[in-house]
Amino acid sequence: MHLEPQARRWIVQGLIGVAVGLVLGFLIGWWILPVEYTNTPPSVLRRDYRDEYIVMVATAYEVEGDLDQARERLAALDPDSPAAPVVELAERLVVAGGDSEDLARLARLAWALDAITPPLMPYLEDQP
Predict the structure, then answer these.
(1) Cα 47 to the chain's mean position, in Å?
(2) CB atoms within 10 A of CB 103
């Protein structure tokens, strides 16, 4: 198949444009204005991410058994009352019919933090 000179010129110019665009994109993205990652404190997270963070802290407590570490992680959300976000989320999940495994984890963590409330008691299995 034989292309006309004008069509060939358009194809070559298009390929050169794509190549120049890729090179400029890499230069700008990697060397001139690279992405800078920062540690975002959990206290400024959106509510759904904050909720996930609390469940992850409860899961980590369940696996590691380190209450001081869990308290420290929760203090990033509420330094004055680290247990408050756990209780608030757990009670919200009870009302919303949340995942029973997450509720049990949150209830066990609330129990360990001496912050258990009546709505969470049914989710405690082995606690007195």
Answers:
(1) 10
(2) 22
Residue in the block written with tokens 């909720």: 51
User: Within 10 A of 87 (CB to CB), how many other CB atoms are there?
Assistant: 20
Q: In the prediction, which pLDDT does 128 show?
A: 47
Contacts 24+ apart (CB under 8 A), 83-87: 83/110, 83/113, 83/114, 83/115, 84/115, 85/50, 85/54, 86/54, 86/57, 86/58, 86/110, 86/113, 86/115, 87/115, 87/117, 87/120
The pLDDT confidence band at residue 91, using thresholds 50, 70 and 90, is very high
For the chain, which residues make up each domain, given as ranges?
A: 1-37, 42-123
- For residue 91, count other CB atoms closer than 10 A to its CB: 17
**40 touches 77 (CB < 8 A):** no
Quick check: 58 and 86 in contact, CB under 8 A? yes
pLDDT average, residue stretch 63-83 = 93
